[in-house]
Design brief:
By secondary structure, this protein is mostly helical. The protein has one domain: MetI-like fold (Orthogonal Bundle). 69% of the residues lie in helices and 0% in strands. Helix 6 runs antiparallel to helix 9.
Length: 296
Amino acid sequence: MQTPTDAADLPGGGNPQVTAWRQVRQGLKSWPVMLALIVLVAVVVIALFAPLLGTVDPTLINPGARLKPPFSDYLLGTDAFGRDVWSRVAYGARISLIAGLGAALVSVAIGLVIGVIAGWFRSLDGLIMRTMDAIMAIPGILLAIALVSVTGASITTVLVAITIPEIPRVVRLVRGQILTVRGEPYVEAALALGTPLPLLLWRHMVPSTIAPLTVQGTYVFASAMLTEAILSFLGAGIPPEIASWGNIMSEGRMYFRMLPGLILFPGLFLSLTVLSVNILGDALRDALDPKMVRRI
């Protein structure tokens, strides 16, 4: 009977990162995940190349072309101010993607630092986690509306308002992961060898959080896009003169019976984008944590 004699004989060449990414690639081969990836890439392409896709200035007002139906002189019709709905939807994709990506990156970065501190320094753990619990006790939408009301509506304010409620969730995730691995033999061996604390945390502790943080980041991405749309729909988000999917739906609700597309088209783009991100997040979770799949 032959036994593996070196790392090359082990699955993934003995490299856990190679094995993890191989599992991710295999998980992305299913047709729902491929379809979600195609939809997400299409939305990103529309956002990046909006000026080249038959659009005009999304703020251009044409009173003579008010409330035109879809698929006439305008692809998706016009709104009550005569603005091209397709142009506003295409440019509005930029706001949603910026809100989602910005909130995900900032919340993951801040949550990682705070979570590592809470998980390693036991003297600070209680204070940090009680602070996080206090933030989580405040409804995210109310906190966002309060911040926007105090500081004024802008993309920066909206990003801050969306990011703050997401940080405690990331902190709890990272803290739990750090508490799990801090008792592992390789960590104790590194401490016994006198490894400096910053190097110990960076080399031996932080890598264990990458997989769960990647999955959590996708959920924050989708949640942030929904929150931005809700705030804009309520009039407490992006300024009305800036095209965003929430603003388009908010302005179109008065004319929903006449032209349902004023709400349906941006709503469809938002729903498909959020659904695609969530499907990709589920695929990453299943690929990076196969034990969870077996338990289910």
